[in-house]
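User: Hey, quick favor. My workstation is busy. Could you predict this chain's structure for me?
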Amino acid sequence: MKRPLLHFPTLAANLTLGDRVCMSFNDGQVPEFGEIVVWDVQRNKAAIEFDSDGRIIPYSPQKLLDWLKNQKLTLARPLGVRPDFERLTTRQQQTVRYREAFVKPMLGERHPQTEAYLSSLIPAVVREHRFTEVPHWKTVCRWYHQWVLDEHDMTAQVVGKRNHKTRVDEDVETVMKRLITDLHFKQKKKAAYIHEALVVELKKLGYTGVKIPSERTIHRRIQALPRLEVIASHDGEVARRMEARMNLGGHEEYNILERVECDMAHFNVGVLDEYGRYLGPLSIAFLICCGTRCIVGAELVVGKHKEDASIVIQSILNSVIQKRDPRFPMGGIAYVYVVDGGPGYRAQTTKEFIEHGLKSNLIILPSRTPWLKPFVESFIGALKSKWGEDLDGYLGAFDREKYSDQTLIKAASLTVDEITRELWAYIEKYHNSPHSGLQGRTPASVWRVKARDRHPVFLDHLTDLVDTRGLYIPNRRLHHVKGVCYQNQWFNSAELQALYHRLHGNTKHKQKPVVDIYVNHLDARGISVVNELTSQKFDVPIVSHKLSKRATFAELNAKQLHKTIEEETPTKVDSDDPITPGKTPGRGDNTPLEIPGQPVVFEDLFEQKPPHSPIGRNTSPSPKPAAPTQDPAGDERYYKGDDDIDNEFDSDDFGEDD
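Assistant: No problem, here it is.
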């Protein structure tokens, strides 16, 4: 497997044999990476071997140079090893970022160290990064010259090399290190106590004529110790892990869509449908661009406590397809997707979709390491505190001993459409608010600036992708006439019936054949059935309903449930039986309410929607109920249409940012 690459548009005077290149013509296609395997200018021969399928295509050198000049062909440099920032002081890290801001734009220039060029570059960099100190152009030349000699490693010239010998005797150094380990690591002693112990210990050992290190020297040695190891020895492993979540040295700067972090947020709030029926708790899958802090994709799910591959794939699809709403241009295919160890993110179908369908890289982080994806974790934390706590019916952090499903049912008051509109209003406000991690700039303005230098690549044709039905369901019974049933819905086709006869044969046994299927909980229009004779998958449409638009299994099943909140909530009748329902059951056993456990899908961001609701459910309009629903408190819940809800944000509020 080839080494990972970072795709930075870089101007170069020439190409050479072995260069890694990226070919992209900004026509909506996925960029292709390759390596120049033939380069002979005298014979007018050149060829590129592409990583995707290994094919070698010949080109003329002049044609490749023209593409390079027009940035249709760009150099892709290898992903370098980042310096160990944990061992750098905060001041050193700030110096590294300060100097890199000036020298990186000089890399593609033909004459970068001229006074005329730097006189225009330095003021532009100072304005962009809002620096207070303006360096001299000769100083920037010196930084750039040393940076090139150090192979683009700014840490080497900031930290420097310590070649001088230590002024502490070797034997004294050994005793001092042992005391620091015994007294500071294990007993939390300070530098003054260790200095006194060092004087006593050296006298015992007979070192009378040597120079004893000062208390300041011991303090510097303690400060140079690994911070997390010291915390682990003082307060334990749990404290070390909690401290590791805090980033004291700043984050690495990324290009647009260079790194996208994914995660799902669960909210302890119940959601209703438009008729007042309880659907389940709320979950939202987010994708955030680390280079711009923009939300590039989201998928709202109701009634699903754990994510599966179909939800994850749908959230990624929402990010790679261009939205039609002009206020939401954020999106595109990312170079790297960073996910946690959840079942939906580590599923094989998710991996195949990202690596083979999108031609991107996937990084699966270890379990319980949220500090390794800090951007999406920070956004979700702010979302729960600023947006979630303002939701009607939000119960705060989930506690099994404090809350139950009945508690969510009683507290539920918002519908899917209302939550969708409030979430979109928050995301739109977030994109146009100053961000501390972007030096006071807004995520939307940073996206516009970076998108001009590197255009996002969107996915235009879903039919060219791998199957997006990511949930594997084995051993489903195959019926002769009806087909296959899943979640109370029947799927059938002529090809499926032909498979039944081939599997069943002419035998007279009553055992019906079984097949393996792949489903997407967010799209009930069809399933994929595996032909065990050929190991190939084929599409089987739904026959229970005539669906012209995408609908979820939960939405189809919810139409069969006619119990409202009043019927779902137990009412107290007497002290002997405090949970007897108010309505007397009929004959037979009581049937408990089956709350749909599948997610409720919402309208894709990229579909044409009214200006005030770019995120909504992808369902056909339902008729209004004949009468309002009466809740246990006696309040009436009327159907609230789109015209009854005012839009909180106007398009005039989101102009260009400074």
